[in-house]
From TrEMBL:
Protein name: Uncharacterized protein
Species assigned in the record: Lichenifustis flavocetrariae
Lineage: Bacteria, Pseudomonadati, Pseudomonadota, Alphaproteobacteria, Hyphomicrobiales
């Protein structure tokens, strides 16, 4: 799957570039313990650090990074980003803009005293024909003080301008700096193909397979990782000093 990112020529050497999501896994995932004591079990249990679906979801697709430091203080967002003249007059120069609260009236995100933050994109995105871009909050990243609103764009056709990523601010007490490179959105291509949903009962072979697999999962750790999980290929030219691998 080739994904092509383009930007104003004046910015090509200045912008943070989109990167595979696995290279932007958070420090807390690496630092968290592999086991923790459970009062319910009165013993140590394996944490989600051992869970391939948890980690693979966080590693899937690519990350749109924040293009510059953004400081948050006393409810204000500010930045100091010196950009050169750009070749396109209509191109944004600010890393952030806003939607007024009225635009999310009737949704769970609406608050009359809170605008919707909009992360501007300085990259256009082009997918292969037949694919749309699914953009969502960086997976399992509740440590970020905002929550991206999920959207899907037909980015095999909508390729001339950057995609904007709206978000609500979820931590009103946050003060500090979101550093350049902070994950803003996690994106991945999805095929625009109709779904054929089939529901049917287990036959005898499926009953046996269910029982055998369930017993194996209960009897030993790592069954899914060892027998079912597909190892994810690296992206072309990917250098991943920060890559996190699921514990054995």
């Amino acid at each position: 799957m080739q994904i092509t990112f383009r930007c104003d020529p004046a910015l090509i050497d200045r912008l943070e570039r989109p990167v595979p999501a696995r290279t932007k896994l958070p420090d807390w995932l690496r630092a968290m313990p592999a086991t923790a004591f459970s009062q319910v079990h009165a013993a140590d249990v394996r944490t989600v650090k051992h869970c391939p679906p948890f980690v693979d979801a966080m590693s899937h697709g690519f990350i749109i990074p924040l293009p510059c430091d953004v400081t948050v203080a006393e409810g204000r967002l500010s930045w100091d980003w010196d950009l050169p003249p750009l070749s396109v007059e209509a191109h944004p120069r600010s890393p952030l803009s806003f939607h007024v609260p009225a635009q999310v009236t009737g949704t769970p995100f609406h608050r009359e005293d809170r605008a919707v933050v909009k992360f501007n994109s300085f990259w256009t995105i082009e997918l292969e024909a037949g694919y749309s871009l699914f953009a969502t909050h960086p997976v399992n990243r509740d440590d970020l003080p905002f929550r991206l609103l999920t959207g899907m764009v037909d980015a095999d056709r909508f390729t001339d301008v950057g995609i904007l990523f709206p978000a609500v601010w979820t931590n009103p007490d946050f003060e500090g700096t979101l550093p350049r490179g902070t994950p803003v959105a996690q994106c991945f291509p999805v095929a625009r193909a109709p779904l054929d949903l089939v529901c049917e009962p287990f036959d005898a072979a499926r009953q046996r397979s269910y029982e055998n697999t369930a017993q194996a999962l209960l009897g030993q750790p790592g069954v899914y990782r060892k027998s079912y999980r597909v190892k994810r290929p690296r992206s072309a030219g990917e250098v991943t000093p920060e890559t996190f691998e699921v514990e054995p």
